[in-house]
User: What shape does this take?
Amino acid sequence: MNAQFERAATLAEARVLLLSGSYDVVIVDEALPDGGGLELVRELAGDRARATCCVVVSDRADLAAAVDAMRSGAADFVTRPFQPAELSRRVAGAAERAGRTRDEQRRVERLKRICKRLNSAREEVSKQVDDLCNDLVTAYQDLADQMTSATMASEFTTIVRQELDVEALLRTTLEYLLNKTGPTNAAVFLPTGHDDYSLGAYVNYDVPRDTADVLLDHLADVIAPRFDQEREVRRFATAPELDEALGDDAQWLNDSALVVFACRDEDGDCLAVFALFRDRRNPFPDTTLAHLRVIRDIFGEQLDRVVRIHHRHTPDKQWPGFDVEEDDHGHADDHGLAA
Assistant: This one.
């Protein structure tokens, strides 16, 4: 790894170094001579002016230790003993995340400066140049959209960062998603093996209960494998669009508008496929698609983290998929979890 490192033997030494310089990644031992390492992690997580990510190293190889670290604000958690290559990979991932955060901070500051300049220009020439006024409106709208997305991303990240098991993560994500989309049927399909998917969680808004079971199981077989390689949030608002996407299977969603997107891990492998559908007379607007893009990326990152925590002793590329258990009562309730 092409990087420069500095070492601090105690919590006090680390704080001195952090005051005198800027660091992308801090590798923190959970147990330090003069205090707990998680205390430093919490300090760095609470400093919004920094874009520093923490990787916690611990002798405790249990879920409780990992949960403590993640809730304190750590980007990753490594247990001893570990291979140097594994630690290097985790540090590289944390450094990449810190870089993205720093780039986002720069963009926000740049947008603030642009907004200030544009506002000043508007005061000077708004009465003389109509075209400039139009440009200002566009710039403000772009800024508002970007700030809204940034705020939403921060809010959703804070909510799901504490969810370190699949069921809780699915439940929290669906609740947040429905708050942004309004009433809709929603289903999350999880991979259980090669090209196989099962229903992981769902919300039944207006599907008749006596047909919900069959519909959801069929969508797991049809929609999930058909869209698990999709990189965009796809919207099908009309009957011709739905027919082209699903063929004969479009009849299962008659008179419905459909949105589908896949969530991926850092290697690009599909971890989940979301399907949202409701009456075509109440279509999904562009703003909802923008919200879903934010939810998709953050959910994928968190689900990938949960999988790695729970299967950290499983060699790479040997994770078999989610163990999805069918509810003894079927899927006909208004909402539920099957993972």
